[in-house]
Design goal:
Elements: E1 2-7, H1 12-24, E2 28-31, H2 42-54, E3 60-65, H3 69-75, E4 83-85, H4 89-97, E5 103-107, H5 113-125, H6 132-144
Parallel strand pairs: 1-2, 1-3, 3-5, 4-5
Helix pairs in contact: 1-5, 2-3, 4-5
């Protein structure tokens, strides 16, 4: 799978660990917007990674900052992006089965490397369930297009 990976300065070390893990699993990983540990702003990185996913240059993206919150907010501003913050395996699984998340946001400061690796593993192994969840995703598209999601 083609993956866009990015981090701010607080997530730089975690991004390197994940890059190695994902490449070892056979994924094609492009590191985008990574700042090699020097100070950088998370919205800049979120834009590059989310844009790669939104434009089809990557199938999925991973963003890492101190808490994952800022990256998630910024990435979700792009049309077609469904970024989810996951801090455990269950939230990673549900972000895929219910929300078809295409960008995973992670915290470098609040969770350790072992848990991050497990979260990423679950996120990549989990498929979207479709069904009733598809209707809800279509409502998200309505919101992206400036329409009331309850108007059908």
């Amino acid at each position: 799978m083609k993956i866009a990976l990015g981090s701010d300065h607080r997530g730089s070390q975690m991004a390197q660990v994940l890059m190695q893990q994902l490449r070892a699993e056979g994924h094609k990983v492009s590191v985008l917007g990574e700042c090699s540990g020097t100070m950088c702003d998370y919205p800049d990185v979120a834009w590059v990674v989310a844009n790669a996913v939104a434009n089809g240059h990557a199938e999925r993206g991973i963003l890492i900052c101190g808490t994952g919150i800022g990256m998630c907010i910024a990435a979700n501003k792009l049309k077609g992006i469904r970024a989810a913050l996951a801090q455990d395996e269950l939230s990673a699984q549900l972000s895929r089965t219910h929300n078809d998340a295409n960008v995973l946001c992670l915290s470098a400061d609040l969770i350790g490397q072992t848990l991050v690796k497990r979260i990423v593993d679950v996120w990549f192994r989990t498929n979207f369930d479709g069904g009733r969840h598809e209707r809800r995703l279509q409502k998200i598209v309505k919101i992206e297009n400036g329409h009331d999601p309850s108007a059908t």
